[in-house]
């Protein structure tokens, strides 16, 4: 069976939009995915039926909100195969999850410790560790990226040693689409007992994420990249680490007892969730993941592969187009530059034809420098994109190329 893309598209109201009389072709899914009607309904239902603060209430609405909010946590737990629901921490997104771990790490690092990141990080997964290492006087290493856009794994292995405290890498590169061998990379790091954080922002929406199988210590992702709302995300971490991880935000909910002089911390997950949580968005993310989980992941993967294969084929036939990133394992993002015109001009002119892509450095300036480009034009696919849209994209790009010549 193949993915019923037409039926999926029907569930996304925004895909019916027109831009200047052209049907919208939305190819900016690495930036954010669109939302199916059931997710929009879950949000509306929360705010029209049971909006209330969670956990502390003595009334019906608070009970209902708490039940739905904690049920969403269970949905996430099952989706990523986390051993325990207490390990699922609500955040505002990938950025906050990584910051939570990096802030704590800064307090745990010694000057002799080392941290390893890669040359293909989103800024959220590099600046955070730079700051942590600077604060502690520790050393930050980088795994270089090959011409194909893959990690140089020989260098990675050679960087690992007894001083390596933590390794952080992306599941999937947001600029190049490269799928990294995260399970193997984790195994290598574990030979030196290093902690492993996977930036799952781009990995989460493309299939089966099983944190126990990966073997990592932390996995962070954003709800808005997997058909959920913005402003909600998840940090999963092993209980034995999170239970003692230095807290980075203090306030309501995360405490157990408070005196005028001191305070003690609550149990997981609450000790890492200071303040009123984003209840409505958490519930809607639970709905997004319930919806996504009903799809057949093999069909999802086959469809995404077909989109990538057709795009690659058409790009190779396109005179004047340089692909940035030609990894063997690639999903979602497809970056390129043209011999004529700045990526920003390409984006602008495609928009005139109803096509939404992203241009610029994709929050990955070191990676752009590595490829000697100021930025790229990037189309990025989701399950609701069609082969016809990919073909339409290249027709429109031909026009753009002529206009820029
Ligand atoms: N890491 C990667 C690989 C990303 O693609 C993104 C979002 N573009 C982030 C981190 C940050 O995600 P957010 O802005 O949702 O926190």
From TrEMBL:
Domain of life of the organism encoding this protein: Bacteria
Keyword Transmembrane helix belongs to the record: no
NCBIfam families per UniProt: sufS (TIGR01979)
Catalytic activity: (sulfur carrier)-H + L-cysteine = (sulfur carrier)-SH + L-alanine
Enzyme Commission (EC) number: 2.8.1.7
Principal EC category: transferase
Stated name of the protein: Cysteine desulfurase
């Amino acid at each position: 069976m193949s993915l019923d893309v037409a039926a999926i598209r029907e569930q996304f109201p925004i895909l019916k939009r027109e831009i200047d009389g052209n049907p919208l072709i939305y190819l900016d899914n690495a930036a954010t995915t669109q939302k199916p009607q059931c997710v929009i309904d879950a949000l509306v239902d929360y705010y029209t039926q049971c909006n209330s603060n969670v956990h502390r209430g003595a009334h019906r609405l608070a009970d209902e909100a708490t039940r739905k909010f904690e049920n969403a946590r269970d949905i996430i737990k099952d989706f990523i195969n986390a051993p325990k629901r207490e390990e699922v921490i609500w955040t505002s997104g990938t950025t906050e999850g990584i910051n939570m771990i990096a802030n704590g790490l800064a307090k745990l690092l010694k000057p002799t410790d080392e941290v390893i990141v890669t040359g293909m990080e989103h800024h959220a997964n590099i600046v955070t560790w730079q700051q942590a290492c600077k604060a502690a006087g520790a050393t930050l290493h980088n795994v270089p990226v090959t011409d194909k856009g893959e990690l140089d794994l020989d260098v990675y292995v050679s960087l690992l040693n007894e001083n390596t405290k933590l390794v952080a890498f992306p599941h999937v590169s947001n600029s190049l689409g490269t799928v990294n061998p995260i399970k193997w990379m984790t195994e290598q790091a574990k030979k030196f007992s290093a902690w492993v954080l996977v930036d799952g922002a781009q990995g989460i929406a493309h299939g089966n994420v099983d944190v126990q199988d990966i073997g990592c210590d932390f996995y962070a992702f954003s709800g808005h990249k997997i058909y959920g709302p913005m402003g909600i995300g998840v940090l999963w971490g092993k209980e034995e680490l999170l239970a003692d991880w230095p807290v980075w935000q203090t306030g309501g909910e995360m405490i157990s007892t408070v005196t005028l002089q001191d305070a003690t911390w609550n149990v997981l997950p609450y000790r890492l969730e200071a303040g009123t949580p984003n209840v409505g968005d958490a519930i809607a993310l639970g709905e997004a993941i319930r919806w996504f989980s009903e799809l057949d992941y093999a069909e999802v993967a086959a469809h995404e592969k077909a989109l990538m294969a057709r795009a690659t084929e058409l790009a190779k036939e396109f005179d004047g187009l340089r692909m940035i990133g030609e990894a063997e394992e690639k999903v979602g993002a497809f970056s390129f530059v043209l011999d004529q015109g700045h990526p920003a001009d390409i984006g602008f002119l495609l928009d005139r034809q109803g096509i939404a892509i992203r241009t610029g450095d994709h929050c990955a300036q070191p990676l752009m420098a590595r490829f000697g480009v100021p930025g790229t034009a990037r189309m990025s696919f989701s399950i609701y994109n069609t082969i016809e849209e990919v073909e339409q994209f290249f027709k429109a790009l031909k026009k753009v190329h002529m206009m820029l010549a």
